[in-house]
Amino acid sequence: MDQTNSTNIMQVNNIKNEIESVMLEHNSNTPTNNSDVVMTPPALLIPANTENRIKKVRTKKMKKLSDDQIRMNHVSSEKRRRELVREIYDELVTLVPDLQKNENRSELIIYLKTINYLSWLYRKNRMLRTKIMEEHPSEINKITQNLIWKLKEKN
């Protein structure tokens, strides 16, 4: 048993002794009808196997990879992340009509044109639903919820 564990066990035993003395004082001051009954507050009860629950001090981790391997892993994972982001932007370029594959584009331009396109789609959806309701008023209840798009309110 190493020094820290034995020190921890001694501390736990000291705390147990202090609690037991407090409980004895409490029991002697507590009036009871039956002298065989010992009143102990439940919060002061300590499990018998407390010594086994002492948190062990962590040893310093051994490096499994060299510094070069760690750096190479970081570089490769960052490269994969950038490729994924690039693929997502390329997908947006194919979906948004205002974006052209051959134009020089920044993230900001992609965001702005995507927002403009989505806003246009929401307006167009609202316009088409209104037109359907005007031309076929008896069919209003047949408009499914997935056809109704609503923009979130700006705060």
Describe this structure in words.
By secondary structure, the chain is mostly helical. It contains three helices and no strands. Residues 34-40 have low confidence and may be disordered.
List keywords for this structure.
mainly alpha
Describe the SSE topology.
Blueprint: H1 3-29, H2 67-95, H3 107-135
Largest sheet: none
Overall helicity: 40-55%
Helix tally? Answer: 3
Mean pLDDT across all amino acids? 75
Strand content: under 5%
Task: Compute the number of strand runs.
Answer: 0
Shape: elongated
How do the helices and strands follow one another from N- to C-terminus?
Answer: HHH
Report the span from N to C terminus: 63 Å
Class by alpha and beta content: mainly alpha
Radius of gyration: 36 Å
Protein name: Similar to Saccharomyces cerevisiae YOL108C INO4 Transcription factor required for derepression of inositol-choline-regulated genes involved in phospholipid synthesis
GO molecular function: protein dimerization activity
Domain BHLH: 69-121
